[in-house]
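Changelog note: in this version the structure field was regenerated for every chain. One regenerated record is shown below for reference.
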Amino acid sequence: MKKIGVLIVDDEKNTRTGIKYALDDTRYSVDTAENIKTGLTLFKQKQPQIVITDLRMEGETDGFILLKKIKEENPDTIVIMITAYGDVEKAVTAMQEGAYDFVTKPFTADQIEIKVNKAAETIKLIDNNRILRCELSSQFEMIGKSDAIQKLKEQISLIAPSDRPVLILGENGTGKELVARAIQQFSLRSSGPFVQVNCAAIPETLIEAELFGSKKGSFSYSIENKSGKFEQADSGTLFLDEIGDMSLNAQSKVLRAIEYNEITLIGAEKPIQVDVRVIAATNKNLSQMVSDNKFREDLYYRLNVLPIYVPALKERADDIPLLIEHFIKKNGYISEAGTLFTKDAIRVLQSWSWPGNIRELKNIVERACILGRNKTVDAEMIQSFLSGAPVKCKDFIDTGFPLKEARENFERNYIIRVLEECRNNKSKAAERLGLQRSYLHQKLTELGINDKD
């Protein structure tokens, strides 16, 4: 088996020697350097896959210089920073700039060995996914070739192998869940569970029980032990969608779960250990919410170690033709002849502001496929959809459906359109439709409409 190259850069001889002896010499080939200059020379000669460097060395510029030069030379190199207790904040900054992890002095041989072994597993994952890392699998494929989407794919490939929390930022409908699933798929936890929680959809009184679980009898309607989402995501990934809507009290418990890898079920006396990577997402300005005392500052900084921005559709309008083709192929209403969008129709779509982003485009394409079956979809038809003007049934309606199916198609598309205009706010949509909120949820289930539609 080929050994993994490790370079140790530290001005203290005892530290260099201690780390070298802590590593299994049958698995690792270790070189050491007492300063940054020698370290860079050895790095260029040996091309190690892992570099362990002190953040501060006597008479040297700080380890950020070495980190920067290594990442310029080979972005895939894993860098582990050694830091004193008081420099933890700088170590976190180093991670934001590309470092894989950090270890705080004083540390034991076991601690450094665990860090390096974990880095070795990450290297194996990177090697296995080298060809695929910017071409995400068809299940969670990100359609597009624009600069914005290529940058997003590259960020995912870099962030996924780490085990740190991720904060996904972006408007509604941009595909934040897709990004979260892609990160999980290319992480060391890809074989583990992916558990999703929509923090905005759970009442404040129930969010803690939903996240952390509860013991039988802990409250009036608790008739049995119930595991929470953290426990269900053990050894996998927990996706906290719309985390900006979580109560401050629940935020404090999420922070503890992330920091100490433990949770306490409601009604339990002792905590239990969990091994979970947290990915959070929001369309809100959390930094402003921190200033307004509506979001915990400590949780914000804990999540914001690896931020990733999902571009709005208007920022990647060049991808619209590819997205249209993708949605047409996925649409079950399309005949073999397919549905064609004229160049003028596509230009209209590319000039639209897309307040509902990808979700809105998907619904527009689906509506065009249903109403314009086997017909050319022109600019006039698209403009009528975007303006909310009624479509002339005699021109676009397909009489090939039984009445029941036609009625269901109309209801489905009408409700989807109202949800779009209400930014997926179920309460507002129910009011617009003249329905009770509970009945709207029932109709959504009956018609197979979910938040992705």
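Spot check on this record: The chain has a mean pLDDT of 84. Residues 109-128 form the longest helix (20 residues).
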